[in-house]
Structures are given as C-alpha cells and as structure tokens.
Specification:
By secondary structure, the chain is α+β, with helices and mostly antiparallel strands. The protein has nine helices and 13 strands. Helices cover 18% and strands 22% of the residues. Strands 1, 4, 5, 8, 9, 10, 12 and 13 form an eight-stranded mixed beta sheet that branches. The structure holds ligand MTE. Ligand MTE binds at residues 65-69, 123, 158, 177, 206, 219-220, 222-225.
Length: 305
C-alpha cells in the first residue's frame, strides 16, 4: 500500500501535530513495513557530502512544493500528484552516448549503491529547505551508458501525461519541463539522481520515481520525474530560460550578488524556521563554493547567470 495511492494526503486526514508522531510509530513497528501505509523503505549508506544543518520535517518537504505539472500552488502537488503512475517507469537515454536505449528504471538501479545526501536546497523564490535525499551520483549512470567524445551537455525531460498531470492541460509552460547541465556539472560528485527522501522512495510531489538534485543551483534546475536524458553537443533549451530568458539563465547558480530582476537573492527564508526564524544570508553557490567554484573559473557569472 502506498501513502500516495489516494488523492488524499496524510496532511488531509491527520492533524499536523500528530503527523510525525504517527510516522515514528509506524517506523517503530519493525517488520510491518508492508502493512503500513508508508512508501517502501530504501537501503542506503550515509554520504560524506551531507551538511550537518538540521533537515526540514517530512511534512514541510512534502507539502510545500513546486511541480507545475500538478498546479501552480505550493499545496497543489501534494493534493494532485496521487494519480501519477510511477511503476512501470522507463528512461530514454539518447544522443551522444555509446549505449542509447529505453531503460527500465529497475534495470537502471540494479547494483546502484544508494546514499543519503542531506543537502541545502535554495529555491529561486528566496526560500530554502534542508532535505535528506536518497540517491546516487549522476556520473555513475553517465559512465555506464558511456558519453561519446562530442557530448558536452546533458539535457533532461519530465514526463508528459496530461491525464495524470492536470497542470499540463494548460500551456503555462511549454511541456515537457526541461533542464540541462554542462557535462562537467553533470559529472560533479555533488550532482545526484534522487529516488527517495527520508529513507523512503520518492513521494510523488517531490518528483517520483527519479529526479535530479543539483545543490549549488536554484531549485528549478532540479528537474522532477525524469523520462529522458540526452547527451548533446550544444547547450540545451531549458524551461525557465525559454519562458523568460532575462530572468533565468542556463547556469542559474545560487548567487547572492546577482539579484533576480524582481527581487533580491541576498537572503533566504528557511521553511519551517517559524515566524521568528528570520531570514538568513544566501551563500555563494548555496555554500558549496569550495566544491564547485572551480567549474566556473574564468567565466563572468554576471553574464553566465
Ligand atoms: N520539475 C518539474 N518537472 N516541474 C516543476 O515545476 N519545479 C522546480 C523543480 N523541478 C519543477 C521541477 C522548482 S521551481 C523547484 S524549487 C523544485 O523542483 C522544488 O522541488 P521540491 O518540491 O522537491 O522542493
């Protein structure tokens, strides 16, 4: 049984205060995983790439989402994503790769060692969260399919299935949602494909069954429910850049010094910090500068925003 099998979310039927208690009761009932309404547990090891910042609650992470395929409101994905079928799921891998194909997700994940990566996550809308993702480096998958020498960029696309994704009934975005990375960004050890969070398989509103997470870039680069990965020799088109090229560049690295044309990026509001949690300064590359600044040596980040 899956938590998201019905259109109701637990938040609808469980008072907020009881939510986490109940989850820990369920988690404590050893051996009852199949009988509980929880998503399947994943086995994983902890990663040295995790921050020690305190993760947001499961409830925050799964009830305040951006996933326009399910509506524009932050609560729409949790309300509407229940109808999404995530099994079976396949990912087309094509373009400049040695072993192109339509890969069944289960095959893609065979033999993959999952890790818990607790990452700071900074949305372009100037809020942030800390999320305990479960995933594996994108580089592992790219190595497995083999990038041809001409492959310079990685493009990804989200599922298009208007019957299950009500937001796709309108042309608010030019579907499919697409994103892209330069190959060195895609191969960076911080860049992961995530299949879960909080030790369980990915909730649908967070991009089940597989999504990208790039912690030094604004959240919109972290494309959800991926069905296509293409290796290209040219910078691929990306959804928000197509929508508004003056506001959203291809790189979209978190950068407190370069404001969005309509708001400041100097500070952020940590979701769940409460009324008096206040705002905190946004860090260059979301605090991952030691690891990733070298990727942009010699680039003018005001131009390549
Ligand atoms: N992926 C798809 N397919 N559709 C979307 O609307 N929104 C992006 C990103 N990935 C989006 C998407 C934005 S703006 C953000 S901030 C993150 O997903 C939010 O991820 P979360 O809901 O897991 O926090």
């Amino acid at each position: 049984m899956r938590r998201t099998a019905s259109r109701l979310t637990w938040a609808d039927v469980t008072p907020k205060a009881a939510f986490l208690n109940r989850r820990s009761l369920i988690a404590g009932a050893a051996g009852l995983a199949l009988a509980s309404p929880a998503l399947a547990k994943l086995s994983y090891v902890k990663s040295r790439y995790s921050t020690d910042a305190a993760p947001n609650s499961f409830e925050d992470i799964t009830s305040y989402n951006n996933f326009y395929e399910f509506g524009l409101g932050k609560e729409d994905p949790a309300e509407n994503a229940g109808a999404l079928t995530v099994d079976p799921w396949s990912v087309a891998i094509d373009g400049l790769v040695e072993k192109p194909g339509n890969y069944d997700l289960a095959d893609l994940l065979k033999g993959v060692a999952l890790e818990e990566r607790i990452y700071r996550f900074r949305c372009v809308e100037a809020w942030s969260m800390v999320v305990p993702w479960i995933g594996f480096p994108l580089s592992q998958l790219l190595d497995r399919v083999g990038v041809q020498p001409g492959g310079k960029y990685v493009a990804m696309e989200t599922l298009v299935r208007p019957k299950e994704m009500p937001g796709q009934a309108s042309a608010i975005l030019d579907w499919p949602y697409r994103e892209g990375l330069r190959l060195d960004e895609a191969m960076h050890p911080l860049t992961i494909l995530a299949t879960g969070l909080y030790g369980e398989e990915m909730p649908k509103q967070n991009g089940a069954p597989i999504r990208l997470v790039v912690p030094w870039k604004y959240g919109f680069k972290s494309i959800k429910s991926v069905v296509r990965i293409s290796l290209t020799d040219k910078e691929p088109q990306t959804t928000w850049n197509m929508q508004n090229p003056n506001e959203y560049g291809f790189y979209s690295n978190v950068n407190p010094e370069i404001d969005h044309p309509r708001w400041s990026q100097a500070t952020e509001r940590r979701i769940g910090a409460g009324l008096f949690g206040g705002r905190q300064p946004t860090l260059m590359f979301n605090g991952y500068g030691d690891e990733v600044a070298g990727l942009y040596a010699g680039q003018d980040l005001a131009k390549d925003f």
